[in-house]
Amino acid sequence: MGHPVPYRNGQEHLTDEFHWLEAGLRTLLEIGGGNPQANPLVGTRGLVVTADELRELEREDKGDHPAESWLQYIEDRRRWEQSIAASAEASMKAGIDLPLSLLCSRLRLTVWERRLLVLCLAAEHSRKYEKWFAYFNDDATCKMPTPDLALRLLCDAVGEQSRARSHLSGNGVVRGLLLESEDPFAGSGNGAGHYARPKLKTAIRLDERAVSFLLQTEVTDSRLEGIVTPFDPQEIETLPLLVPNDPVMGSVSGLAERLDEGHVPFIHLFGPVGGGKRLRLRHLASARRQRLLVVSLRGMPADSERAEIAMSRIVREAALTDAAICLAEDRAVSGSTVAHLEQWDSALAKYARFARRPLVCWTSNVRRQPTELPMPPRAGWICGEVAVPAAAVREMFWKAEASDSDRQLPETLWQELADKYRFTPGQIESAWRQAAALAAGRGQTVPNRADLETASRGQFRHRLAQLADRIVPARTWDDLVLAEEPYSLIKEACNRFAYRETVYERWGFGRKLPYGKGLSLLFSGPPGTGKTMAAEIIAGELGLELYRIDLSRIVSKYIGETEQRLSELFSEAENSGAILFFDEGDALFGKRTEVKDAHDKYANLEAAYLLQRIEAYDGVTILATNLLQNMDEALIRRMSFVVKFPFPGPDEREKIFRAHLPPTAPVSDGLDLAFLAARLDVSGGYIKNIVLAAAFLAAGDRMPIGMEHFARAARQELRKMGKILVKETFSPFFDSNFETFG
């Protein structure tokens, strides 16, 4: 016996399969009624009952042995199947994939199930089989295979029909994954008054995805577009893992290898968007030589019935293509319920039962407990956090993105960007693409520092603007008039944030600090002394967004609502890296009082909760208060910096006056800012108002800004403060006619 000849493609394989099928149909025709062309009543099958048909039924009832020609066909079919199997095996060894063989292997189909697959596929492959099926179904309108035909044609013996029926039931893999019609042995499914075919005469047909897989007309079920993104194992070769000795990869790979057969690995990875959760799972699937189907839970239909249909298609796709399933929950909220959880339970249980190598993954931005997830039976669960990588790794990712152009940029730039922006790998990749687009808009091939800074700031996705007031930094260090000590403290605070990665990570201090690595500042001082301006300057220096939160508006009289608002605020801040500027800190952080009632108890709990979130926040938080002596000692002790903003003296006030006068503003020769600073005992915020009001008064008079305008503006501002401006204040400028400026 010679060596089997491999098939060149799947079509050659199917041609041989259809050969034994057609031989069976001809044999069945021969023993059941001769040549249909010689039968004058052949066109009335299903409408007229002939004597030959009755004699055939009588012969079956008596249990007569099958015709000799049928026994010969069964023997011939076995030999054909052995020959086909040998050629198919030779094809697989030669690296030629045969869809039918792959499907049978992956779904562990029996010989009878494989025959049924060929029978149903024939109806989709060529219309010539429609007449054959209509004839044997005794129904000119039923041109598809039926259970009756399958049982008569595909069984080797009468006793095999009982087992064959189970393959057509709802519990079998063929019925569960490959056929689209209703279970012929599970109720009629027809309403009263409607004609229902006998169950054995119900048409059975392959699902269109099973057909497209076998005929190689579709790589992935097109009905899953927008829901499923497939990744083939060979694609990962162009996406190396840049994180050396990644502990998360070690854990998940170890779980998949350790589990016994029959257990389903269930891997839950959580962490910020762009952290590489799916990339790690693609590497895992690639190592197993598996495809990966990433299912967007946001893309799933909201309707329960349509969602269940989509789940069935996902499970079918995964089983057909030997794929792992990754359910991606990108915007999860802690404590929320997974949509369609019970239906996912059923779908994944089906996947675990039918797939040859089931692997289920779940990715989300928050950690889920096992009870919150759809666990298949006998699941082996592991959970891993994919956090923002260390600064050194972030620097590696920046350099990898700029590998072709880094020689044109300063070598220190990558460390600066890595230290400044705590980005995930996905954010770094996106920032580089956007920066390159900005450069291309100017006709340049390499982005500059400004492009990279702009693109990096554009990576932040958050809803802070709905929870707080954004302040766009417009002040500079030159605008800040402060004594040397508070000025130096603010400078030092900026340096601490700028060099945090060097100290905490590169020098190892972070290993000794499980929390409290962020920067927290307490600003204290009278109103208008520059606390908000200092917050602006810090934001501008660090290149971060600034949001002001009025704690008096956050605090709620309803128990638990304050904590909920603060939790939402910090969750959004963690997505943005923004500076949180808490104004009116006295509203929550006044000295704790003796607990006399439930209100006092929960007020203290609210303060403790905010302090806990400030300590856990890796970014910058600033609290402002007018009265430092009223603040809780525990808060003061835990602040990174306490900066006192003193009331400005005459020299500082003169500098503030000058800082608020633009060089382009017209001023009279007699304007004496030193005199104004000495006579007006107000803070910087009020000085700003006086300067601006004086400018508008001068513009209305169509004159340069002079002392008379400052006098009128000062009187208006002091009246708002509840103070009176007497004429001696501006003596000797307006001794005689001071009243005219009121």
Automatic annotation (TrEMBL):
<dbReference type="Pfam" id="PF22977">
    <property type="entry name" value="WHD"/>
</dbReference>
<dbReference type="InterPro" id="IPR003593">
    <property type="entry name" value="AAA+_ATPase"/>
</dbReference>
<protein>
    <submittedName>
        <fullName>ATP-binding protein</fullName>
    </submittedName>
</protein>
<keyword id="KW-0067">ATP-binding</keyword>
<feature type="domain" description="AAA+ ATPase">
    <location>
        <begin position="517"/>
        <end position="649"/>
    </location>
</feature>
<dbReference type="InterPro" id="IPR054472">
    <property type="entry name" value="WHD"/>
</dbReference>
<dbReference type="InterPro" id="IPR003959">
    <property type="entry name" value="ATPase_AAA_core"/>
</dbReference>
<dbReference type="InterPro" id="IPR027417">
    <property type="entry name" value="P-loop_NTPase"/>
</dbReference>
<dbReference type="GO" id="GO:0005524">
    <property type="term" value="F:ATP binding"/>
</dbReference>
<dbReference type="GO" id="GO:0016887">
    <property type="term" value="F:ATP hydrolysis activity"/>
</dbReference>
<dbReference type="InterPro" id="IPR050221">
    <property type="entry name" value="26S_Proteasome_ATPase"/>
</dbReference>
<dbReference type="Pfam" id="PF00004">
    <property type="entry name" value="AAA"/>
</dbReference>
<keyword id="KW-0547">Nucleotide-binding</keyword>
<comment type="similarity">
    <text>Belongs to the AAA ATPase family.</text>
</comment>
